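Please check this:
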Amino acid sequence: MFKTSMAISPLPANFAPLLFAGNWELGVEQAAKLGYDAVELSLLDPSKDLLGHIASALRQKGLALSAVATGQSYYTDGLSLANTDPAVHARLRERMKRLLDFLAPWQGFLIIGGVRGVLSKEPAVQAEQRKWALEAVRSYAEYAQSVGVRVAIEPINRYETNFLNTVAEALAFADEVGLDNVVVLADTFHMNIEEVSLPKALELAGKRLGYVHLVDSNRRAPGQGHINFQEVVTALRKISYASYISAEILPWPDSQTAAELAIGYFRSL
C-alpha cells in the first residue's frame, strides 16, 4: 500500500544520510534495479542542465520524483529561513521556485527540513525569525499550489535545531501557514528522539501526514536499529496512509548495501 523511495544527492554533501551522494546516475540506476518506485533528491542550487539530465534519466528508468529536500541550502550555503536578511530570503525564494518547477511534473513534495535553520536564544529575536520563516514558507506554498506541488514540514530533533521538533509543532506551524497543500513529513529517526509515542504522533497527524522517512534509531536502514516498525506501520494503516515511505538513511556499510537493506525491509511490511 506504500510507495517506496530512497534519498540520493547529485553532489557530495555535508548532510550525511544520503545514498550515492556525488553519483546520482548510479543512484537512479540502482533505485530502478532494486525496484523502488521513486527517488528523493537532496538538492543545493542545481543548474537547469543538471535538472534536465536528472528528469530525463528518471523517465528513462520509469522512476518518479517523490520529493526534493532543501536542507543543503543551509548545511552547505548557510542560507536559512530563520535568517532575517531580505537578501538571503530573495536567494532562497528564487531557488525554491526553480525546485518547485522541477517537481511539478511529478506532483512531488518540497521538503522544508534543515533549511529552516536554528533560532536565537533571545525570545524577541526568535519571534522575528519565526515571522520571517512563516512568511517564506507561505510564499513557497502559494507558488507550489499553483503548480500542483505539496510542501512538507519536517520536524527535526533537538540536537540539530530548536525550531519545530515534534509532529504537533509542525502541525501548528502548518496551521499558521494556512494553505491546504502544506503537510507534515514524519521522520522516524527524529521521532524516536522527540516523540513520547511514534504511533500516537502519526495518528495525530492523520490525513495531514503527507510523507514518511522510514529510518531506524541509528539513522540506518529500517531493521538495523531498535524502532518497532510494526507499530509504526499499524498506525500508518490506521490513518489510511498511502503515500511514500522513503529511505533517507546513512550509507552504512555502503550506499549499495543500505539501499538493498531498505527496500528489503519495505517489502516485508
In short: The chain has a mean pLDDT of 97. The radius of gyration is 17 Å. The chain has one domain: 3-268.
